[in-house]
Structure formats: structure tokens, C-alpha cells
Amino acid sequence: MAGCPQHPAEEGATHHDARLEFSAAMSYGDYLHLDEVLNAQHPLSPAHDEMLFIVQHQTSELWMKLMLHELRAAMGHLAADALPPAFKGLARVSRILEQMVHAWDVLATMTPPEYSAIRPYLADSSGFQSWQYRCIEFSLGNKNAALLRPHAHRPDLLAHVDAAWRAPSLYDEALRLLARRGLPVPATHTERDWTQPYAESAEVEAAWLTVYRAPQTHWDLYQLGEELTDLEDSFRLWRFRHVTTVERVIGFKRGTGGTSGVAYLRKMLDTVLFPEIWRLRTDL
Fold this sequence. Notes:
- The protein is mainly alpha-helical.
- Helix content is 62%, strand content 0%.
- The chain is built from 13 helices and no strands.
- The protein has helices spanning 8-14, 28-32, 34-38, 50-79, 83-107, 112-122, 131-139, 155-166, 170-180, 202-213, 219-250, 262-268, 275-283.
- It starts with 7 loop residues before the first helix and ends with a helix.
């Protein structure tokens, strides 16, 4: 693939075609700003394993940046009745989540004594304070005004989180699309206070059931329902691997950010983002 580093075995056969001098041209490292990226790890402890902890979380933040990029685009496409590019973006978000699920496998190689050696250096910092993650949660409909507060000290970041809190979620845009297609989604779910948590609706489930009982008639809406199902399925797996990794590494200690740790994360496992799409399966 163009742009990828060559495998050593290929160098002898192809290096005579490659550009080897970059004093006046943009290189691979220049394009990716690798100096900044690779010099952004600053361990505070003398522990060897802190580098793993930092890289794990920085990598997750990069994936979350891409997730937000794709989610925002997908919501815009749904609002514009452009379903094929919305499907492409949602499928990409699901694949990103798969990468993030497997990233926990790497962090799980950190043992409790290894984590204990770096924990005092973390002070009150915690993934709970990730503004990108909070934007993702809000964009997926899990709204909670209290979770704006950890970002109040950074007005620039608070503006992003606040915008996600006030905007329609991905599911809100999906329901507005169903309503525009003539399906009986109640006005309480198409024009409401978007800052409030989503409330399940029998009428919304009935609208989705119309789609799922006649998929050939409503094929693109049927595909939308399955794309949302894939996304939430992947998100649930990410949450599950999160809680099991935390329990494996720190047990039931409180989180560095003040949460109850595993107990808090287990509670989050019960959050359902697109409830009617899951419930309708029982009624089909």
C-alpha cells in the first residue's frame, strides 16, 4: 500500500525506485507529525509499565477522535436522507470499536503490582474525564447534564461536550428519518428537548416493527436498524472488556477519578442505547 513502510525483504528489490532524500520534500514522518506523536509520552513514575498505560490510552483517544468524526458525518447524512454514506460511516464506527475491544487485551497484560506502581502518579486523572468519550456517549443518546462538570475548567473542551449534549443523538436522527418516511413515530420523539435522556416508547417500537415485518418494502430503514444494532453490539463488547480488564488489574478499588470503579462500570453495562430495536426482536 502506498505510504506504508516497506518490509525489509522488499528493500533490495525496490529501493532504487524510492525517493531517498527529503530535505526539500514532505516525508512520511512529516505528513503524520510523528515527532509530536512519538514524543507525547511522558511517564511520571520510574515503572517500566507506565509506557503501556500511556500508549493504550492515547491510542484509544485517537480511535475516539475518528469515531466522533464518523458519527458526526453519519448523523449529518441521516438528517439529509443520504443513507448509503451513513451506512458506510456507521459500519466504520463498529469496526473502530472492534479495535478498541482488542486493545484491552494488551492492557490486561498489566498485573496488579505493576499497576500499583504507577497508580499514585495518576493523581485524580481518569478516563472518566475523557471529553471525547463523553461526546461519544452523548452522540449515542446517553445524556447526563452532570457529566458536563468535569470539563468546566476547560471552556474550549466544554464547548464540544455541551454541543453534543444539546444536539439530537444518532438515534434521534434515525427516528426523525422514520417519521419523514411516514412511519408513526410520535412527535414526542422527533421534536423534544435533546438534552434529556431518551425514553422508550411503544409507538417507536411499533414503527420499527413495521420496518422489520416488511424488510423488502423498507429495505434501507431495515438496514439502518441493523447498522445501529451492530454498533451497539460492538459498544457493549467494549464496555464489557473495559470492566473485566479493570477488575483484573485493580479489583474493586475506587477509580482514580473518584468513581466506584468496577461497580460503576458494571452499572453502565445495563445502559441500552437503542432500546426499541432490541425489544422488537421478542415481538417479531
